[in-house]
Amino acid sequence: MLQFLPDSLILWFCNILLLLGLVLTVLGFFVHKIPFLYQYQLPFKIAGVVLLVAGVYFRGGYAVEMVWRERVTELEKNLDVARQESAKVNTVFKDRVIYRDKVIREQGQTLVEYVDREVVRTITPECNNLPMELIEVHNRAAKLNEAVQQLESKTK
Amino acid sequence: MNRLTAWFVVLVSTLTGCATPVPVKQTWPQAPSEIQEPCAPLKQLDSKATMRDLMMTVIDNYAAYYHCSSKTQTWQDWYRAQQKIFQEVNK
Predict the structure, then answer these.
(1) Is A31 inside any structural domain?
(2) Which domain holds residue A34?
(3) What is the pLDDT of residues B66-76, one digit of tens each?
(4) Largest CB tally within 10 Å, which of A74, A86, B33, B46?
């Protein structure tokens, strides 16, 4: 609830309570010398002590509240900085992966063009008949992860 | 008077619920979508494949591997960088 009240209002309340408690406590010791008020010595003392204790308690509570607010503000500030840095990092890595993909694609394309331009004409018709074993081994190698996927699907 | 007191108690107890400050929440950032894409499966050869097909498939598969490797490396670097930022906040 304290968060919804202005700081100055809370501070004023605490200070007034503390001051009132102090004044009443001090008055409690001298009130017997004041005419018409001497019979209120005990109520003055009791009220003074109660208000003083409450004032000290609330003043302490206010200080703690302020420390927490300060920490929250600092943390929020740090979080804002972190969010900005995080966004920058995301941009850097996004650009990096896009650039790398582009380079790999270009290099692959260059190699494909080289094969079509230079290598294909050197291939003899006998070479073009690939043995079935070669194709089979190649395809099995390309499917090496299938065993893992099958095991994973069984455990699910 | 009793009813008024009861209302007052209810009102005060509702307000005390607000006394707990809302904690500041630190969320883990979302990774770029480019590195979240799954790796492409490797290509296989047709039974009537020629030498050119073999070379093209090998090139494609190597490219697929390097694309995947690039993404994995970026994931690791991204994680380390974000973790550092995340930890800096609570120092």
Answers:
(1) yes
(2) 2-141
(3) 999 999 999 99
(4) A86
- Which residues of chain A make contact with B77, given a CB cutoff of 8 A? 93
Number of domains in chain A: 1
Is there a contact between A93 and B55 if contact means CB atoms under 8 Å apart? Answer: no
Query: Would you tell me how many other CB atoms lie within 10 Å of the CB of residue A54?
Result: 15
**Is residue A136 a part of any domain in this protein?**
yes
Q: Which residue of B has its CA nearest to A86?
A: B82
Whether the complex's predicted ipTM is more than 0.85 is answered with no
In the block, tokens 């994995």 appear at B72
B89 in a structural domain: yes
Tokens of A124: 């003899």
Q: Count chain A–chain B contacts defined by CB atoms under 8 A.
A: 114
Answer whether residue A10 is part of any domain: yes
> How far apart, in whole angstroms, are the C-alpha atoms of residue A36 and residue A38?
6
Question: What token pair was written down for A9?
Answer: 């209002």
The total of structural domains in chain B comes to 1
